[in-house]
Write a structure and sequence with these properties.
Length: 547
């Protein structure tokens, strides 16, 4: 549905993307009386939850905190069915919110932003779309998500494949029937791990091509009873307080002990207890030094390895699945249902392509470096995303002096507070590179950013300010601090999408603020309180008075 014919082409803000971020941004700005245009490439709301429809797609964070908190009505009216809802339910939730707040009428669906250029004379962004429209807006707000530009590896011979090809990150809307098929799955990140049991249950044969062994933790998903929901509601204020005080934006009791200061028995007891509970708590609440001390990390890596060996009956298969090459938790931990168990099925096997990579895709399958051949009818790519920066760069943005963001970021993204790049005035990125979001619970980070941006816009309106621009020195200091803080952890040791290492040629730069969403919120609030320290605020009147 495209309403562009009746829409204004001069607005206060253009918002790009109608996922969790964009929907709340639109709601906030409308409430505050700003005029907006919102562009969304998909035909509906949902962002990542719109595109990632692969079988088994499910949240890795629990429903009672993986949701908006800004509206008591929304929270009370929506009923989650289970601990970790599946994709259709989360998409249903986002549609419910969009309908409840009557947001859809203000969104141009099926519309992609193809260019954005800052006009220094008017302090406006000139935004172009694939529909041929040009819109002027004082502010450009990207709400494009972190995992939304799919990575489609250019494997030799891909176009010659005679069978079907699917990408988990842009899955068809209709149900795919894998029965009778020999399916090859490339990728063992969260997406590959989630869809493995589902593909295995349907396909004649499933071959999983694994480049990097992952550390997956059982989700222990379960339905929520009314009593559980009531208890969550009663504890809501407490849980919310805990969430906001937490570095990861989840209401967990954080661990106080090092993995190395307890006895082996106590350590095992702690891991056993948390493994039985499932989910992120296993990694995040067991011990306090797992992501900073390699010896401590070894204890959890060994524990997971032992669990895999216990679960997977064929020792050779188990060894492939345990062929770890990075510390546990240095890639985003996958949360699974029956992943390792699936390798006990007769129709499933895992092939390591770590040292024997895919050489070529042929008409009838995949051939590895050592000439081993796998005949396939279907290939599923669960190969991830050009994460965090891909979707922002794809919009062809140009700042002051016509500088392309792509050029500015050619050695890695730079943005003060992870919010706004110097040289790109009046541009804000919800959960942009250099903010904490990818290491934390997204909705918490999204609400914090949206509120900060909205309040900044109100401040500018009230004070007659036309332009806000991040200054280069604080932006440099921010980038330096991120690298230094990340280097104090084990996170840079993995070839992860956190490091941009999954995309050939992408600069190897840690993409998130590593010290947690609580510390980050304090910094952002301080910056605002000090009159937006680190930014230059300019008004036309001031400029006229000077000249
Ligand atoms: O992507 P990934 P994802 N040849 O980048 C492999 C969120 N998410 O879509 O590790 C062969 O993690 C790659 O190998 P390697 C979540 O934040 C959440 O799974 O680079 N293999 C890896 O195994 C998550 O972290 C949920 O060596 C290639 C896999 O493909 C993020 O999205 C569910 C290859 C990609 O893993 C991304 O997850 C799904 C190549 N050329 C996603 N290129 C939940 O909420 C890549 N690989 C649960």
């Amino acid at each position: 549905m495209n309403h562009s014919h009746k829409r204004s082409t001069e607005v206060d803000a253009v918002i790009v993307g109608a996922g969790f971020s964009g929907l709340y941004m639109l709601h906030r700005l409308r409430e505050l009386g700003f005029t907006t245009r919102m562009f969304e490439a998909a035909d509906g709301v949902g962002g990542a939850w719109y595109w990632n429809r692969y079988p088994g797609a499910r949240c890795d964070s629990e429903s009672h905190y993986y949701c908006y908190s800004f509206s008591d009505e929304v929270r009370k009216e929506w009923k989650w069915s289970c601990r970790y809802p599946a994709q259709p339910e989360i998409l249903g939730y986002l549609n419910f919110v969009a309908d409840r707040l009557d947001l859809k009428k203000d969104i141009d669906f099926g519309t992609r932003v193809t260019a954005g250029t800052f006009d220094e004379d008017t302090h406006d962004w000139v935004v172009e779309t694939n529909g041929g429209e040009t819109v002027r807006a004082r502010f450009l707000i990207t709400a494009v998500g972190n995992t939304s530009a799919p990575s489609k590896p250019a494997i030799q011979g891909l176009d010659d494949f005679a069978g079907k090809i699917y990408y988990t990150a842009s899955w068809p809307h209709e149900k795919i029937d894998f029965s009778g098929q020999r399916v090859g799955l490339i990728g063992t990140g969260s997406s590959g791990i989630q869809c493995t049991p589902h593909l295995a249950a349907e396909a004649d044969r499933l071959t999983v091509f694994q480049r990097t062994a992952n550390y997956s933790v059982p989700a222990r998903n379960h339905l929520l009873t009314d009593a559980m929901r009531l208890e969550q509601e009663e504890k809501h204020q407490d849980l919310r307080r805990k969430t906001l005080a937490s570095p990861i934006g989840m209401p967990f009791d954080l661990p106080q002990l090092s993995a190395l200061e307890v006895s082996a028995e106590d350590r095992k007891r702690r891991y056993d207890e948390l493994w039985a509970g499932g989910g992120f708590r296993f990694m995040f609440t067991s011990f306090n030094d797992l992501t900073v001390d390699l010896k401590a990390n070894d204890t959890i890596a060994e524990y997971i390895g032992a669990k895999i060996r216990d679960t997977v009956r064929d020792p050779a298969t188990a060894e492939v699945l345990c062929d770890f090459n990075h510390p546990a938790g240095t890639k985003r931990p996958p949360i699974d249902t029956d992943y390792y168990e699936t390798f006990n099925r007769d129709n499933v096997n895992v092939v390591s392509i770590r040292t024997n990579p895919i050489r070529e895709i042929m008409a009838d399958g995949i051939i590895l470096q050592d000439n081993e051949r796998y005949e396939l009818d279907t290939i599923v790519f669960a190969t991830g995303f050009d994460a965090v920066t891909g979707s922002i760069l794809n919009m062809n943005l140009r700042g002051k002096g016509g500088e392309a963001l792509r050029d500015k970021w050619d050695r890695g993204p730079r943005a003060y507070l992870g919010l706004s790049p110097a040289g790109f005035p009046n541009m804000f990125m919800v959960t942009g590179p250099g903010s904490p979001s990818i290491l934390a619970n997204f909705p918490v980070c999204i609400e914090q950013h949206v509120d900060w941006i909205a309040e900044c816009m109100v401040h500018m309106r009230e004070n007659g300010i036309d332009e806000i621009e991040a200054l280069p020195e604080p932006e440099d200091a921010w980038a330096k601090m991120i690298a230094e803080e990340a280097n104090k952890t084990l996170l840079p040791l993995a070839n992860s999408w956190y490091m941009g290492a999954n995309i050939p040629g992408k600069p190897r730069v840690f993409l998130a603020y590593p010290s947690g969403v609580h510390a980050y919120t304090v910094i952002c609030d301080d910056v605002a309180k000090r009159g937006y320290e680190g930014f230059a605020l300019r008004s036309r009147k001031m400029a006229e008075a000077v000249s």
